[in-house]
Structure formats: structure tokens, C-alpha cells
Amino acid sequence: MFGLQRQTEPASSHQHQQVLSQDLSQYEDEVVLRFNWTEPEHGQIFKSAAERLVLDLWNLYEPEMADVRIHKQRIRDLLKLLPKQMRDKRRWDFNIPDVQWAVVNSLPISSRHEQEFFDDYRPLRDIYAWMSKMEKKHELLKVENLGLTSEGNELKALRVGSGKTKVVVAGGVQAREWLTVSSTLYAVNCLLNEDPQLLRKHVTVYFVPIVNPDGYEYTWTTDRLWKKNRQATGVALCSGIDINQSLNFDDGEDISQCSENYGGRTPHEALEARHMAHLMNRTSSKTLINFESYSQRIVMPKNYKKDLTKQIRQTTGRDYQMSASDGTSWAVKLPDIERNGFLAHKKYIKEMGEEAHKILQVILSSL
């Protein structure tokens, strides 16, 4: 159907059908390249080259590597902009050799048989319905509306717990990071069932599982790899603001509206960033934990003095790289399953959801 040969889980036409009707030809002959470097300045050189060609950078902020989505015919153009050391074939390879196939393999499947909620990825309407259902089921949970997006979608949060320490947990900041949405929701479910005392006596957690509802819906209808929100930028063909960049606005960074990393011209220009900042202020939350894909790294605030490396390893069974940054936010970057980047298969939803829960247990207990 798509001119692709690989298939890890064949879907019977009698039992299953694709629930999306995107134009998958937009990903034809695209690949994701992974570049590694040893010189610190090479990271900025690579970023500048990718921005110049208006490429889609993945994993932009890792210190010694980055992935970039690119059409095969443009690889030579990118290499021409890089120094000789970075062009060396030992410094780069094909992380995803067939983006079109990876997209197809990540799409949800609709079954005629009843599925559990976490058996597959879910559209926005189903997620909001699940949140309402959970509110009726658990006394410790309350759904809150944080405001509207530029396309009129509600930005919703789950207030979970009644403890003194206030924490905000975010997922789905980048629209294409479906695994962070499901992992955040799964963690809510686990905390309610397994850690009620932590929620009653120690913390109140405001979960925002889909910070980017407009972009998330767009990944279901039009472009599975869309990153930004859908807000107008003043350039007709370049809509969308990177919400993460808008939350961490850098006045000294001049980026084109067409860039995947465009964060707006003023702080919190993205409506979703504005709503999140208001939530932090209204609740006096000092901690924001943002679940992201992908790299198996945890970035914590510089002023946080505890070393959680051993606890995270003992709890998850994985070695997460730990680093620090300015500000009060945490970034929990989940593992790259099967080197599929943002396109993790649905079979990892529960595994990564449990991973998110375990990491949250460690962080929340330490606050």
C-alpha cells in the first residue's frame, strides 16, 4: 500500500483498520540522521546549518549528538555546511532509515473488539473523556480547565492529591510526542492506585497530559510529525509556536517563524505557555516536571542538591544520564525505544507509563 516491505505486527483487514487518513507521501524518501561530535562548538555549528536549511531537528539539546529529519536528496546540502570532522562518515549514520515506515508503524489501530484505554494511543476527545471518567471515580482527582487555545480547544489539567507541596507535571508539549501523553496519563492512574498516602499527605500534583491540544489533534489528522502549536505567527505558510521555547523565552535568540524552534517574539506568546505560567503562579508551584521524548536523560534544576542517580537506577533498572540546568524545571526524557525517536510503537505505552510512574515516585518523594 505504501511501497514498504517491513511489518512488525501485521494488521488483519477483517479485525483492524487505520484510524488516520493522513497523506503519508509527505514522508517519502525522508530519513533521520544521527550526528555525533567531540568538539563543543560543533553543536552550535550543526544547529545553525539545520536552521539555515529549515530542517526538523530532533533531540536538539543533547551535548554530544543530535538527530535531524531530512529528505535523502538534501543530505549533501547539509554536509556541505559542516566542517570536515563532522562530515566524516564515522560521525553520522541513519538513525531512522525510512521515516515513512516509522510513521505508519506508530499509527493507532482501531479494533472491533473492546480495548483497554492504554492498549493504544488515543485522540484528544477520548483522553478528555477518560479524564472526566477518572474524576467521577476518584475523590483525590479533579479536572480543571486552564483556558482556551488559539483553535478553541480546552487546555485541561488533572489536580491529583491534597498535600502541601504543589507540583506541575506536563506531557505532550511537542505535539508529536504521543508517548509522553500516554506516559503521563498512565502515571496518574498508577499514583492513584498505588500511592494514595503520598498524594494525601505530601503532594498535590497538577497533571497537564496534553499541553499542546491543537498540535496534538493536527498530528492525528494531517501531519504525524508536527511539533509546534497551531497559533498564527504573522507568516501565512509558517504557523505554530514552539511551546517549550515560549515557556523558556530567550530574548537574544532571533529565529525565523518558519523554524521548528520558533518560540515567538515575546515571553509566553504561545497561549498554552501563558496558561501554564498562570497555573504555576496560581498554585504557587515551585516545580515543573516535563516528560519528553527521547534520550534517557533527566535534567534537574541547578539548585536541587540531592543525587537521585542511584534511586532512579534501582527503581527503573536503567541508567539515566543526569544533568543540571538553570531554572526550576525538570525534564524527564524517556528512552528511545528501538531507535524510533518520536515514533514509538504502541506496545511500549504501558512499559513507558510504568517508567514515568517510577521516576515520579522518586522525584515527588524527594521534594
From TrEMBL:
Family annotation (Gene3D superfamilies): Zn peptidases (3.40.630.10)
Compartments it resides in: Secreted
Cofactor names: Zn(2+)
Keywords, sorted A to Z: Carboxypeptidase, Disulfide bond, Hydrolase, Metal-binding, Metalloprotease, Protease, Secreted, Signal, Zinc
An example Gene Ontology biological process: proteolysis
UniProt keyword Protease, yes or no: yes
InterPro entries with a match to the protein in the record: Peptidase_M14
SMART domains on file: Zn_pept (SM00631)
Similarity comment: Belongs to the peptidase M14 family.
Function noted in UniProt: Inactive carboxypeptidase that may play a role in cell wall organization and biogenesis.
Protein name: Inactive metallocarboxypeptidase ECM14
Species, as recorded: Trichomonascus ciferrii
